[in-house]
Amino acid sequence: MSVEQEAQLEQLADDAQEQAKSPAPASLEVLEEEEQAKKERRKSKRPSRHPLPATMETETVTLEPENTHCPRCGLEQHRIGEEVSEEFEYIPAKLIRRRTVRPKYACRCEESTVVIAPMPPRLLPQSKLGLGLAVHLLLTRFDDHLSFYRLEHIFRERHGVEIPRQQMVQWIEHIAGWLKPIYEAMWQEMKAGNYLQIDETPVKVLDRDVSGKTARGYLWFYAVPREDVILEFCSSRGQDAPNKRLQGFQGTIQTDAYEVYEAVVKKNPKIERIGCLAHARRYFYKALQESLGEAVWFIGKIRELYRIECAARALDHTERHALRQVQAPPLWAVLQTRAEELRPKLLPQSTMGKAVNYFLNEYKALEGYLRDGRFEIDNNLIENAIRPTAVGRRRWLFIGHPQAGWRSAVIYSLLLSCRRRGINPQSYLSDVLNRLPSTKITEIHQLLPGHWKPSPPNTS
Question: From residue 273, how far is each of 197, 300, 372, 374 by CA, in Å?
Answer without folding.
Answer: 10, 26, 13, 14
